[in-house]
Amino acid sequence: MAALTRLLKPSSSPSISINLRRSLSTTTAIVSDIESQHHHSPNFSEPKPARNFQWVFLGCPGVGKGTYASRLSNLLGVPHIATGDLVREELASSGPLSHQLAEIVNQGKLVSDEIIFDLLSKRLEDGELKGESGFILDGFPRTIRQAEILDEVTEIDLVVNLKLREDVLIEKCLGRRICSQCGKGFNVASINAKAENGKPGMSMAPLLPPQHCASKLVTRADDTELVVKERLRVYHEKSKPVEDFYKTKGKLMEFDLPGGIPESWPKLLEALNLVESEIKRSAVA
Ligand SMILES: Nc1ncnc2c1ncn2[C@@H]1O[C@H](COP(=O)(O)OP(=O)(O)O)[C@@H](O)[C@H]1O
């Protein structure tokens, strides 16, 4: 639990703090103008920042954090780190924590900050050894304590808060499927939510798997209606305050998803001031 100790006591010893910086920040130099990044205007015609993106994705269960964070990670060349995935990997490993984790996750509760910090710091350390730089965090921080500790150890440039109607969130969670072989996520729900109480109507086509994944689809044990509702309740209680934490710091970008991926992805890129073709071209050059 050395990594855990390092993460949870960042200010108790200077060397711990230095270790933390090494583990949580892949920074080689500090960006002199953080401001320009958290005003969401990475401009690819200008010189690249001195370090890579350090972004966070927030949002309710089922909103699509994983989908959009993973697309952006491919586009920007930074790792997508989802603490939910780390928890599921630990669960599947049948390690000493797996029994305890299964009980918590399948009830829709949050895993302790200590366990999450341990899993995350290990993941960041492994990434650092592989030469990874920057990150898009998904599903972390999820409590004020997690946000405060992250804030002590590194500089987050931008926090994207994805938002979607709650009835659609539940439908999306219930339609979620994972390929047990390749791990890719799909969604079999065909959503057609009517406009009501001032909320606009919304359609989302299913995200169907290719043929080779179709027979291997599994549903997450925590994607039952009862557990999804509990996860939403827990989100409002524990994670909503994290949105305010970043809003106060001027780092929060609210993004209302207008529909499925075809409508939302270009709008999200626009909101982030990213031009896909330019980034791809600059990566090839
Ligand atoms: N940062 C975190 N803090 C505490 N528990 C977490 C965290 N990230 C993931 N978990 C645990 O893993 C589960 C699955 O997380 P995730 O895949 O992010 O689900 P969701 O679809 O609810 O966003 C959560 O319900 C919770 O039990």
The biggest sheet, with number of strands, parallel, antiparallel or mixed sense and barrel status, is:
5 strands, parallel
Query: How many beta strands in the DSSP annotation?
Result: 10
* CATH architecture label: 3-Layer(aba) Sandwich
CATH topology: Rossmann fold
CATH class: Alpha Beta
Query: Total number of helical segments?
Result: 13
* Shape estimate: globular
- Order of helices and strands, N to C? HHHEHEHHHEHEHEEEEHEHEHH
Structural class: alpha/beta
Number of domains: 1
Bound molecules: adenosine-5'-diphosphate
Distance between the termini: 43 Å
| Range of helix content | 40-55%
Going across the major beta sheet, what is the strand order?
2-3-1-4-10
Share of β-strand residues = 5-15%
Enumerate the spans where pLDDT stays under 50 for 5 or more consecutive residues.
1-44
Radius of gyration: 19 Å
Short précis:
Monomer. The protein has one domain (52-266): Rossmann fold (3-Layer(aba) Sandwich), CATH 3.40.50.
What are its keywords?
alpha/beta; 13 helices; AMP kinase activity; kinase; binds adenosine-5'-diphosphate; Rossmann fold; five-stranded parallel β-sheet; Adenyl_kin_sub; 285 residues
Structural overview:
With 285 residues, the protein is of the alpha/beta class. The chain has a single domain (52-266), classed as Rossmann fold. Helix content is 48%, strand content 14%. The strands form 3 sheets. It has a 5-stranded parallel β-sheet, with helices on both faces. Strand 7 (191-193) and strand 8 form a beta hairpin. The structure holds adenosine-5'-diphosphate. Monomer. Its EC number is 2.7.4.3. Keywords: Kinase, Nucleotide-binding, Transferase.
